């Protein structure tokens, strides 16, 4: 873990003026980075899981060794949801109590309730200050850790009651096709109908126009919050990416400067006046940090300003931005200004890489530099801005409101400026040709042929989205079967295939629909959107509704369901459901058994509300309402959750792992000790095979 070029470069940059502190900085870079994680999901879900973790695990750490291994709360992370583990996984496995905590972590991480994320990476989304009504775009979103924080903030006031769904949306964009699919995998666990995942080069993200409230003319979609966590050289991650020690050079930072600037400028154009934009990198290099910030501040000519966030995130130790830096040329020679660069090398530099003459007027000290020796973290750079004046063609609509110009003329003028604006961000003809080739490739390889169905919007990379009308027979069947309230949005159902038979029904928010249903939808390369709500079960033809509730969409639709298909259960019923595969109705308490016998076959919900006796029961670890999707057959039931979800639920409910061997054994004992006909045994086998097939298809 030595690199003389790295050390000499940052000494020359004077990023840490005190020589003794610089030594501490270098020593910290050579130490292994602690594991940090945060608890994810809605506000109520997060706090319940946090309290469960403290109550059921930390309280049992008694020995000196166990106490020393106990995770420490990240003080500056809100609501006690960020944690740091001061030891290795090997140490955690040494005692029974810490080993149980390690298994809990693995289980919750597997299904996404806990997200392993570097502490400094959590900072940019927190400084965005996202609220439920905001339109937000994460321009370089993969792998999705910061986007998940944004989604959680959007749903922070979603109480699970009627009318609490957020009115805003999140667009998670990434330039890499495969990384875009990683985003889908990472973010689907958050179950947000307000998310769109797209695949565009950030600096070329298209302008989108939707109908205004009166449906009389098109207005541009502008964002209240923009995150530009741009591609960077990444030397702030040295503690976890040891290979950088061998390969480090200042050249990648110089090479990325133009792209970083282009992405940031495009973000400023997409931002609404009064909105907030955050620029961040995991690099120490001022050419990627303060140089980009200075260049864009001057490019925007006062339209954006740096925000003083010194009082936000109390407890976070940060250093101010630099007002003086240098650029490295051949042989790592440092130049203080563009004029110092030899003529033979000038083609490799841009003037914006160096401190501008007006650097003292830009408030660069408001930027945040995070160093590893300050709080045992990685390195990071963050700058927060507010848009205070129009910048770019999208802002002309504000001018139109005051001048009352003809909307058609203004729209034509803006449409023309859109193309010029995006092209101006790109600084060479070769880049423009790359843009044309990118769109042509998407058009030829990924976009399906136009459909004759007016409800089909062909803009998806994979399959088209088909909007279902509210009088669709399938939707009417679902509404009647589950007692779905008329208060639930009726025209936001979509499927991913044309025809009468579709496997999955998705739900999207109204804000997402306005974009996906716009005339400009063909300009958006959508990877994924919508929450799975119902899945078609090709089982017994006597079932009144073939569509079963999917666990992914349960939290969204649950407040709007009547009690027609809801069974109230006890804690012991939940134990039976978890500890046995396909438990027979005879295994449940009398009231539950009676309710199940009176219910016809098909999908239903088990609802558990802890009683006072449950709260006093040491065996019952859950303290809030729980709803689970279940399939009720003639003589048995099946919990419609994936194995990983069941394991997580077992830890939260019972504080232990599910013993699969014991589960199978208890089921066999149930079959042998109860008078069940061969027809019923056959039925259970068929159910098991059918459900495994369905789970495989859904996976």
Automatic annotation (TrEMBL):
The keyword Lipid biosynthesis does not apply. One of its GO terms (molecular function) is tRNA (cytidine-5-)-methyltransferase activity. S-adenosyl-L-methionine binds at residues 140-146, 174, 229. Residues 661-699 are annotated as: Disordered. It comes from the Eukaryota. Keywords: Methyltransferase, Nucleus, RNA-binding, S-adenosyl-L-methionine, Transferase, tRNA processing, tRNA-binding. The keyword Transport does not apply. InterPro entries: MeTrfase_RsmB-F_NOP2_cat (IPR049560), MeTrfase_RsmB-F_NOP2_dom (IPR001678), Pre-PUA_NSUN2 (IPR057285), PUA_NSUN2 (IPR057286), RCMT (IPR023267), RCMT_NCL1 (IPR023270), RsmB/NOL1/NOP2-like_CS (IPR018314), SAM-dependent_MTases_sf (IPR029063). One of its GO terms (biological process) is cellular response to hydrogen peroxide. Residues 673-699 have a biased composition (Low complexity). Residues 661-672 have a biased composition (Basic and acidic residues). GO terms for cellular component: cytoplasm; nucleus. Pfam families: Methyltr_RsmB-F, Pre-PUA_NSUN2, PUA_NSUN2. Its main location: nucleus. The active site is at 282 (nucleophile). Residues 25-388 form the SAM-dependent MTase RsmB/NOP-type domain. It is found in: Nucleus. Belongs to the class I-like SAM-binding methyltransferase superfamily. RsmB/NOP family. PANTHER family: NCL1 YEAST -RELATED NOL1/NOP2/FMU SUN DOMAIN-CONTAINING, RNA CYTOSINE-C(5)-METHYLTRANSFERASE NSUN2-RELATED. This is S-adenosyl-L-methionine-dependent methyltransferase.
